[in-house]
Amino acid sequence: MTSSETDLVRVLEADGRFAPSPAAEQYLPLIEAISDAELEQFYRDMVVIRAIDNQATNLQRQGQLALWPPSRGQEAAQVGSARAARAQDTLFPSYREHAVARIRGVDPIGIIKLMRGISHGGWDPTDPANGNTRLYTLVLGSQVLHATGYAMGLNFGDRSGTGDPERDEAVIVYYGDGASSQGDVHEAMVFAASYQTPTVFFLQNNQWAISVPVATQTRVPFAQRSAGYGIDSIRVDGNDVLASYAVSRVALDGARAGKGPRAIEAETYRLGAHTTSDDPTKYRTSDEEKSWELRDPVPRMRAFLEGRGAAGSFFAEVDAEAAEAAEDLRVRTLALESPPANKIFDHVYSEQHPLMDEQRAWREQYEASFEQPTQNGGIRA
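The structure assignment produced for this chain is given below.
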């Protein structure tokens, strides 16, 4: 174990063996209390979302989507943290948190609509069916400010830190190592620390900010950055779903109880491209990719479950469910229809706005300019 790994919370080795790191000792009672059904649910979550993710990537390659940000390799970090959140907590995703969104109730077709370019958001974040999951944010880091502002509101509204764990709320916000260089993230941490907001900053360090390696992004572990703001910070193996669940559970419980913000750096790896517009072979080596494939969170958890005696029929059932979910997504994606052109002006403001009315009228006039009268009085497009 290297010096950089001594503070890393890890429960499962890459081959699925239960071998907690020294930093994981304090979390063992929590991990040992996880039921067999919950453990199987963690695995099911990861396998199903990976199938959906692969299907969406294929759909983009076939021209059905404008863009797709794959999440392959980062399932454990997302599943563990999302399963650790309580129903009353609010989640602010970035744009790659497909597992998080699905666990909280968001229909994956909502993400497809966004990436197909036929929706501004994809789902209603105020609909209880979507589990307090805010919209994807493609502007790097801006959701971190939104999350902290929301968390400040929880404090001002006595919705956190009252001592009632069934009612108290917390916020968890997801962002990547690239976004961590944005000023928004640092400003959010200043406010979170100053106002002791119930915010959990969940950074998925997937080693690459598109083509920029983490060594260029930071000279120290990201967790040390947040600690510099006075925020309790922890590093976790992001490819270990049990470790991710445990540290997230403790961080959220602390934030909810009024102990101030927490920060988690989940060390993981983006096995695929940054987005379907990217070609990682231009800047990554195959040796590096292969080394991380050996730490893939899905086979790691499967090996752990097999070691506990999980039946082969369980894995077959999960594979069938994943295949069905992926096929369902394909069918519904191909059935999507383009919305009316003027829909682009809807929801820009919460209420009708004269600027939108002006732009809508201009667009209609512009479209009409292509219609030319014919000699016999008809209209020629």
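Interim note for the steering committee: The first strand starts at residue 8 and ends at 9. The chain has a mean pLDDT of 95.
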